[in-house]
Design a protein that fits this description.
The protein is an alpha/beta fold. It has helices at 2-15, 21-30, 39-55, 68-82, 136-144, 152-162, 177-200, 214-227, 229-235, 237-247, and strands spanning 57-60, 95-99, 103-111, 114-122, 124-126, 132-135. It has a four-stranded mixed β-sheet. A two-stranded antiparallel ribbon has the order 3-4.
């Protein structure tokens, strides 16, 4: 109880301070999506951003020096996802690790009777009760140049939402049994459709990477929901409606056609 009271007091004191002017310049330069929000949404995003920046452990990796520009750019994109959700500032994310660009991670796989140690290049990773790892090159580029259907921050933090129920299965905690039933019906149908599109090489709005498993499908669908909302609404109306209900947002109404 005392820790919760102290946390809320610390947040109130933080939000009572003026928003840093250099941070606002970073928002306008690096997060184009910020300009699509109405004034009330912008104010809410700035509040979420400040708490997010203050409560995470930020670390530059691979020679990258951590700066306020990096923190604000990452935090603002993550905050967009929370504008319509009940949340606690991604409290399960303890650290944000940022590399200059793609980074190598060791992988071990078995081929027949052999165990092979390999290196894989990644742009991002999300760990349960652990860090989110990001490539700064992608984060900055996608913040400045939206409407590609891809966004690394939204992808990795969608995994964090998925993990809130301690499982990574493409189904975050939902409000009701009815919402869960609708989620299972729509997501299963859309996931199977993407797998079929990928198998036969048919053009698809959603990235084929979403056909990997249900967790990746939710993350890929989230990227498209925020980054190409008009197209998703037109081509996958049931999926768009499902995500709009979950996130409590209707981005197709706020974002101009690319």
């Amino acid at each position: 109880m005392i820790f919760s009271w102290l946390k809320h007091r610390r947040r109130r004191n933080l939000l009572a301070q003026p928003f840093p002017e250099p941070w606002l310049k970073t928002l306008n330069r690096n997060v184009v999506y910020y300009s699509y929000l109405n004034p009330a949404e912008q104010a809410r995003l700035r509040d979420i951003l400040r708490v997010f920046v203050a409560e995470k452990n930020w670390e530059g990796c691979g020679g990258l020096e951590m700066t306020d520009e990096i923190k604000v750019t990452v935090a603002a994109q993550a905050a967009i996802m929370l504008l319509g959700l009940e949340h606690d500032y991604f409290s399960g994310v303890l650290s944000i690790l940022v590399y200059p660009a793609a980074f190598e991670v060791p992988r071990r796989r078995q081929v027949g009777g052999l165990v092979l140690d390999e290196q894989s290049d990644l742009l991002g990773e999300a760990w349960y009760r652990g860090p989110v790892i990001l490539s700064w090159k992608e984060v900055r580029h996608e913040g400045r140049h939206p409407h590609s259907g891809r966004n690394l921050v939204w992808h990795e933090f969608a995994h964090q939402l998925d993990m809130l129920d301690r499982s990574t299965d493409g189904t975050p905690p939902l409000r009701s049994r009815e919402q869960l039933q609708r989620w299972q019906e729509v997501m299963t149908a859309e996931f199977n459709q993407l797998k079929e599109d990928a198998e036969f090489g048919r053009p698809a709005l959603l990235d084929y990477y979403g056909a990997t498993n249900e967790a990746e499908f939710f993350a890929v669908a989230t990227e498209c929901f925020f980054d190409l909302p008009g197209e998703l609404r037109d081509e996958h109306p049931s999926l768009y409606a499902l995500l709009a209900d979950y996130y409590g947002q209707d981005p197709a109404q706020r974002i101009p056609e690319p």
